[in-house]
């Protein structure tokens, strides 16, 4: 009877270990899936596949890396920066690193004392769509109230995941809009419409071609004149975008500091006053993007859009951690 009890205990112990292992694998898979939805790896296709392992099931994420040209890969960040500065057809409104600054004062005129939120994006990136759908309304309110400066960085590395270079066409159109329409709210509205769930296309094998005419329709709906929209598709900034796509991922200050993509850049990437904002902390803190952003800059929800109520971090400090409050 005693031996029978021991065998039963052993079986229970083994079953408990298997259950614990299965739970751990499931948790890792769920976290990887959350990161996959929020972030797109630059230079990699992320595919989730189901595999069966003895008594447990797990999701394994495979990375099929597509390298850029050897010449580009061999460049240091300094050399890539120099190449960017050599591009002739560069948008006049962007800074040396490709940022397009927006504030209540217009393009390129920062509000003194306000934090600067930088967003690095690709128009095909699903995580970018998710971010903009959650944040754009609050961002526009905070811009109008002079509570933040917004620094936009357009990229087009996902052209390979569409059949018609969607990322490049959309990014060129956005830059042309900024250069020829002096109202930044039109650009923000254009981003909202481009990232709308019923408009933003899926990437890869699920991609369905989007015409210039369809993008132009979104531009006009955002308040841009037909005259400007008609001329927004000559892709005059393509060389600049190519140089941006080479330079930006090499900037170590933009590399993930946690998660599956630690040590590499993904989109969307967000920095606050030039400091990396770790969005992986949001799931740990069980908070949303919108709530997490406000907490990270030190602004309460009922202060959004209220002129004179400024984020506590000011224009110098980095983001407040949503997990530690520091």
TrEMBL record:
Q: Which residues form the Thioredoxin-like fold domain?
A: 115-281
One Pfam family per UniProt: Thioredoxin_4
Transmembrane residues, as ranges? 41-62
What are the entry keywords? Membrane, Transmembrane, Transmembrane helix
Positions of region (Disordered)? 1-26
Database matches in SUPFAM superfamilies: Thioredoxin-like
Q: Is Cell inner membrane found in the keyword set?
A: no
Q: Name the residue ranges with Basic and acidic residues bias.
A: 9-20
InterPro entries, sorted: Thioredoxin-like_fold, Thioredoxin-like_sf
Which first-to-last residue range defines the signal peptide? Answer: none
What is the protein's given name? DSBA oxidoreductase
């Amino acid at each position: 009877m005693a031996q029978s009890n021991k065998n039963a205990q052993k079986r229970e112990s083994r079953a408990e270990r298997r259950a614990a292992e299965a739970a751990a694998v499931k948790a890792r898979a769920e976290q990887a899936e959350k990161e996959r939805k929020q972030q797109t790896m630059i230079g990699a296709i992320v595919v989730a596949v189901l595999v069966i392992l003895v008594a447990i099931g797990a999701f394994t994420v495979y990375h099929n890396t597509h390298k850029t040209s050897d010449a580009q890969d061999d460049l240091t960040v300094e050399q890539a920066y120099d190449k960017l500065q050599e591009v002739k057809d560069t948008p006049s409104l962007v800074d040396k690193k490709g940022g397009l600054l927006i504030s209540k004062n217009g393009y390129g005129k920062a509000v003194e004392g306000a934090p600067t939120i930088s967003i690095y994006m690709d128009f095909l990136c699903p995580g970018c769509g998710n971010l903009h759908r959650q944040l754009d309304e609050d961002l526009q309110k905070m811009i109008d109230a002079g509570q933040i400066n917004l620094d936009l960085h357009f990229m087009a590395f996902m052209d390979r995941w569409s059949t018609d270079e969607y990322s490049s066409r959309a990014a060129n159109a956005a830059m042309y809009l900024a250069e020829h329409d002096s109202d930044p709210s039109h650009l923000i509205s254009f981003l909202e419409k481009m990232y709308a769930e019923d408009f933003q296309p899926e990437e890869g094998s699920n991609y369905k071609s989007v015409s210039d005419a369809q993008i132009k329709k979104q531009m006009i709906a955002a308040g841009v004149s037909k005259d400007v929209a008609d001329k927004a598709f000559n892709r005059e900034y393509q060389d600049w975008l190519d140089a941006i796509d080479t330079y930006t991922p090499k900037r170590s200050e933009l590399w993930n500091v946690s998660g599956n993509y630690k040590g590499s850049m993904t989109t969307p990437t967000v920095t606050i006053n030039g400091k990396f904002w770790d969005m992986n902390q949001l799931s740990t803190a069980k908070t949303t993007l919108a709530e997490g952003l406000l907490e990270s800059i030190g602004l309460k929800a009922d202060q959004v859009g209220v002129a004179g109520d400024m984020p506590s971090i000011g224009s110098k400090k980095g983001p407040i951690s949503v997990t530690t409050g520091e």
